[in-house]
């Protein structure tokens, strides 16, 4: 039954700005339809008040009409106004008719939750202000006439019915808030991941690599040795020139995956730019980093990567107390430049 009532509109997916408005419209119409049906029966059977029964029956027909129209059109804006106006008008008509007695004024508190959520801040403020202005006039009239107030069974029903409606509405709002918060948290994680990731290779990008290295160096006096490698694909320009840049991108992605597979758990690998990659080797001396770099170079040279035989040149540097992140990378770059000049496919420490 509820699945039928809460129709899914393809034009309003869960990440659409109007998704929760469609849910509230369906939720509100379910509540109003149920309430008007129950109140119609109560006013006829319990109170024999056919005028109020007619009022509630009219509300029931309006609710069902809006349900049918909304399901057929999916027009959120018009339906939002229709629901809010219907609820507000019927509540005010009931309050004015009962002259504000029997706790009927309590019904006016339902208008702001509907109006603000469905119409927005400006229109919601206007609709709520108008509702409470009418309520103030009703109370002013009570003061002028000084009629005695009687608290009968109807007063109790009004308090119970409005309280239940508030609980249902705010239960819905909490669901919407919680869902929106969870969606925002997921998106923030995704945004952060995209901001730190090289789009082509899926490795950390240059900005993330630099920030990570700066963070590591800030505590290096309290940590074991730290070394970096700067790797460059030999003769990569020939691949781009001969096979095109799309093929070059395939090679970069394949090599990035290969590097990730070769890394130890504590290592950090990033794309530095073009065909260059940086590896941060924590808890690694220069000697150990050189041995690791040679293993990487040899492993790449032995295999065919994306249908190409590749070699890499590597510059290696270990942190010294006078280093900054930039100077450490510059020294690794000096080693890489020397490796290139000595025939490539080699590892040089700087």
TrEMBL record:
Any one Gene Ontology MF annotation carried by this entry is: diguanylate cyclase activity
Asked if Transmembrane is a keyword of the record, the answer is yes
Its EC number is 2.7.7.65
Q: Which reaction does it catalyse?
A: 2 GTP = 3',3'-c-di-GMP + 2 diphosphate
Obligatory cofactor(s): Mg(2+)
| Protein's UniProt keywords contain Transmembrane helix | yes
Q: Specify the signal sequence span.
A: none
Ranges for domain GGDEF:
224-350
The regions listed as transmembrane in this protein's record are: 24-44, 50-70, 82-102, 114-140, 149-173
Q: Which InterPro entries match?
A: Diguanylate_Cyclase (IPR050469), GGDEF_dom (IPR000160), MASE6 (IPR048435), Nucleotide_cyclase (IPR029787), Rev_trsase/Diguanyl_cyclase (IPR043128)
Q: Which UniProt keywords apply?
A: Membrane, Transmembrane, Transmembrane helix
Q: Which PANTHER family match?
A: DIGUANYLATE CYCLASE DGCM-RELATED, REGULATORY COMPONENTS OF SENSORY TRANSDUCTION SYSTEM
Official protein name in the record:
diguanylate cyclase
């Amino acid at each position: 039954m509820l699945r039928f009532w809460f129709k899914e509109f393809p034009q309003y997916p869960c990440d659409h700005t109007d998704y929760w408005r469609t849910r509230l419209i369906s939720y509100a119409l379910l509540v109003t339809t149920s309430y008007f049906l129950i109140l119609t029966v109560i006013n006829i059977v319990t109170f024999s008040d056919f005028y109020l029964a007619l009022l509630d029956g009219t509300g029931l027909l309006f609710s069902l009409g809006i349900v049918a129209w909304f399901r057929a059109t999916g027009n959120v804006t018009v339906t939002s106004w229709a629901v809010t106006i219907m609820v507000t008008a019927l509540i005010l008509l009931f309050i004015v008719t009962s002259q504000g007695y029997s706790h009927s004024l309590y019904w006016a508190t339902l208008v702001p939750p509907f109006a603000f959520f469905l119409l927005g801040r400006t229109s919601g403020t206007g609709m709520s202000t108008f509702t409470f202005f009418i309520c103030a006039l009703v109370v002013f009239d009570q003061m002028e006439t000084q009629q005695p107030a009687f608290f009968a069974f109807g007063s109790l029903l009004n308090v119970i019915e409005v309280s239940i409606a508030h609980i249902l509405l705010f239960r819905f709002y909490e669901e919407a808030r919680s869902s929106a918060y969870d969606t925002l948290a997921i998106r923030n994680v995704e945004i952060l991941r995209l901001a730190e990731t090289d789009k082509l290779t899926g490795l950390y990008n240059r900005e993330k690599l630099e920030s990570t290295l700066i963070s590591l160096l800030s505590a290096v006096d309290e940590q074991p040795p730290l070394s970096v490698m700067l790797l460059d694909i030999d003769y990569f320009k020939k691949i781009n020139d001969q096979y095109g840049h799309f093929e070059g991108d395939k090679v970069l992605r394949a090599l990035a995956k290969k590097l990730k597979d070769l890394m130890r758990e504590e290592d950090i690998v990033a794309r530095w730019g073009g065909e260059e990659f940086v590896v941060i080797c924590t808890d690694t001396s220069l000697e150990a980093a050189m041995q690791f770099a040679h293993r990487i170079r040899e492993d790449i040279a032995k295999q065919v990567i994306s249908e190409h035989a590749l070699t890499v040149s590597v510059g290696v540097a270990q942190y010294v107390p006078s280093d900054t992140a930039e100077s450490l990378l510059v020294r690794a770059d000096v080693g890489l430049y020397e490796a290139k000049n000595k025939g490539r496919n080699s590892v040089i420490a700087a």
